[in-house]
Design goal:
Blueprint lengths: L10 H6 L10 H21 L20 H7 L18 E5 L5 E6 L6 E7 L4 E4 L2
Length: about 130
């Protein structure tokens, strides 16, 4: 189905309605890109961060839908574009990525006490709940 993108609708919301568009990534492509990015951050944390005396900080300022797979997984479905609670433009997420293991701690700083822990296998690119 190829329908027009309604004003104010994100790409993900468009796709969630069952639409397909040749210029918009599919949900599968979007999730793959998101997990590739997260795997890259884990490689940085494991290989580069231990050698630095400074902390690495990344601020999401655009394209929150590219983080939606991650934010949905880490929040157990609470923060996702699917229910209009995804990451907003300019919102700051604090990611504390283990420099040795697979644990990821996330704080949604603009949302009060929304803090989560998740495990992410950056080689297989799969999530699991931290114990």
């Amino acid at each position: 189905v190829h329908a027009e993108l309604e004003e104010g609708m994100t790409d993900l919301q468009y796709l969630m309605k069952g639409n397909v568009h040749p210029q918009i990534e599919s949900i599968e492509e979007l999730n793959k890109r998101s997990r590739d990015q997260l795997s890259y951050l884990f490689r940085i944390a494991h290989l580069i961060q231990p050698k630095l005396t400074k902390r690495i900080v990344i601020v999401e300022v655009e394209h929150g839908e590219s983080l939606d797979d991650f934010t949905e997984q880490v929040s157990g479905g609470k923060h996702t574009e699917k229910i209009l609670t995804g990451v907003k433009r300019g919102e700051v997420l604090e990611l504390d990525i283990s420099t040795k293991g697979d644990e990821l701690k996330v704080n949604f700083l603009d949302r009060g006490d929304d803090s989560y822990t998740l495990k992410y296998d950056h080689v297989k690119r799969v999530f699991s709940t931290a114990q």
